[in-house]
Amino acid sequence: MRSLRAVPLLAATILAHRSPPSAVAFTTDARAELHRLWSLSLASKTERVACLASLIEGDTVRITRVQLLDGAGIDSLAVGAQASLDTCAPPLWQGTVHTHIALYDGQQPYARFSGADRGVMQTWGQRWKSQGTFCLLYAETTVHCELDGPSGILILPSTTY
């Protein structure tokens, strides 16, 4: 049962602005780290994971900071999500971003979160009792983000970074 004292991020945003966020934007530093995450993922041929910080400004989810996870647990396919769940925690972080470098039928990128990804997102929300921001890099300059947690899911339009 949800606490009546805590108003989740998404619900608070909708109450304050009368509509949910509908766009994603990136600070210059966050954008640079996303490009680095993508490059490292391609070079290592592994899916990589990073913590991300975000805030909601009006109708926009702004990604303000990204920190790559290094060491054990950096390949989102090879290991469980424990490293990102432990490290990418509020209040410093509001979620995670990871790469999908594999291609569907060898041609098209996987542009949406997998069932396993959704399980990790749900676990993050349950563990931290907070709405999280989750992004997926699936091309050199294209990202898909969603808000997910106790208030439900909000799928944002894919955009460039």
Features:
single chain, 161 residues, alpha+beta, Cytidine Deaminase, domain 2, 8-stranded mixed sheet, two-stranded antiparallel ribbon, 10 strands, 29% helix, globular, disordered N terminus
Please characterize this protein's 3D structure.
By secondary structure, this protein is an alpha+beta fold. It has a single domain (9-160), classed as Cytidine Deaminase, domain 2. It is built from four helices and ten strands; from the N terminus they run αβαββαβββαββββ. The chain has helices at residues 9-17, 28-44, 82-87, 115-128, and strands spanning 23-26, 49-57, 60-68, 95-99, 103-104, 108-109, 132-139, 142-149, 152-155, 159-160. Strands 1, 2, 3, 4, 7, 8, 9 and 10 form an eight-stranded mixed beta sheet that branches. A two-stranded antiparallel sheet has the order 5-6. Strand 7 (132-139) and strand 8 form a beta hairpin. It is globular.
CATH superfamily caption: Cytidine Deaminase, domain 2
The number of distinct helices, counting runs of at least 4 residues, comes to 4
What percent strand? 25-35%
CATH fold type: Cytidine Deaminase, domain 2
Shape: globular
Mean pLDDT: 86
Global Rg: 15 Å
Number of domains: 1
* The CATH class: Alpha Beta
CATH architecture title: 3-Layer(aba) Sandwich
SSE-based structural type: alpha+beta
